[in-house]
Amino acid sequence: MDQAADPVVSRRQGGWDEESAYVLHSYPFKETSLIVEAFTRNFGRIGLVARGARRPRSSLRGLLMQFQPLSLSWGGKSELRTLHRAESRAGHLQLGGRSLMCGFYLNELLLKLLPREDAHQGLFLAYEAALETLRGDTPPSWALRRFEKSLLRELGYGLALERDTHGQPVRAQAQYAYLVERGPVLLDEVPASAPVEVSGKTLLDLASDDYRDPVTLQQGRTLMRYVLAHHLDGQALHTRQLLRDMLQL
What we know:
Elements: H1 7-13, E1 15-29, E2 33-40, E3 44-50, E4 70-75, E5 80-88, H2 97-113, H3 121-134, H4 140-154, E6 175-179, E7 183-186, E8 197-199, H5 200-207, H6 214-232, H7 238-246
Parallel strand pairs: 3-5
Antiparallel strand pairs: 1-2, 1-4, 2-3, 4-5, 6-7, 6-8
Helix pairs in contact: 2-3, 2-4, 2-7, 3-4, 4-6, 5-6
């Protein structure tokens, strides 16, 4: 049986070998160990105990870094599994400056919205693509909008961008209110003030991942902030505030 295509069997066996993963966050545990929150290709987000990882001569020391592609092996059946081995999958440039802050934002979104052991291979690929974009010359905000869209879609909260709540095609020249549980509604059909106003062009640009228009970027940022806030249910995003203050992304 192909275990890579059947993560349930691997769970039942209590472990997994050489799983593609990224570290989202880690923090000290006891005197020499770490708790690691990892995002894996086949198992989603998992919690791992990296025993002795903070010892000077540990084979794990210096490996468990964010934004670097890893191959992880672990065992155990408790909520926190035991990390057995970590290896670097390939060399990549570290993120820096604005891109580093954007990477932290992506990680915080995953930590707060993605339940543990909820596998989303499509989201894993979208995360890798976002990191690759952040390492290049494309504006970082483009990577954020694309990833936010992918995250919402994978979690079952995909944005309605091409048709309004009546099923009619969105018109580029029209103005819409966006209702988080319903989608776009023509602005003159909303009796009260709309929580978010957005042009039809912006909605169509978002649907096609076209972020060249500064208005699309500004309205798209506002729309994503509104929709994500709803699904975060009161949880604050600390990296978003830093980005807002420093970069206006």
